[in-house]
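Quarterly update from the structural biology core.
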Amino acid sequence: MTSPRLPNRMAGSHPRILALDTATEACSAAVLTRERTVSRYLELDRGHSEHILGMVDAVLAEAGLGLGDLDAVAFGRGPGAFTGARLAASVAQGLAFGAGLPVVAISDLRALAQRALDDAPAVLSVIVCADARMQEVYWACYRRDPRGLAEPYEDGEHVGAPQSVEPPEGLVRPAQGLGRGFLSYPQLGERLAGRLDAIRGDWLPRAEEIARLAAADLAAGHSVSPEEAVPIYLRNEVARPARGGTD
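Predicted structure, tokenized:
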């Protein structure tokens, strides 16, 4: 097994991260450097595989970097559509293997929570509910850590009927509900309205938040070799077709 090289810029500095995501209807790529974040984002019903490599090339070119200038490749590991999560993992593996880079896998639910925390500095907790199809949602609860990053509550990630979503007893407020699970199942927002201060049902995860989270995880030593970079499936029925994030 080929071991990835160590990052050029170690913990406490500013690693250069290429991130990509195709696990949902969103198809995105981003490069994070010390100076800025360069990103591309599209929402597609299908055809992510036709766009993602071009988006990767575009963000690298705009950032003035090649793969050899990076410290890691990050990807959205799901949960999401089976083919989309698998595509993201495969592309990240291929890019990282060729350049001898480590890989950082970031939860798409956590990336979406991070988007909310960055957008609204007053928000302290986020309940993310993504549409899992088949009358179910992927969901998890996150809180703002001292660095402003999304930290999961102890109970982790789930898949289940909308009525199974249950915020933790110690939910810190202000709290926001986020994700297209709220859009697809309005009863979810109605049931949780008393425990949430706002709901946004239109957002999807993006590569730029994946890159931001990956930089912190890389600095903490949370990376894997390309061979170990795999998507996460919360549902056993992964072979059934799902809309969004398809090839």
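The helical segments are 52-63, 82-99, 108-119, 180-184, 186-192, 207-219.
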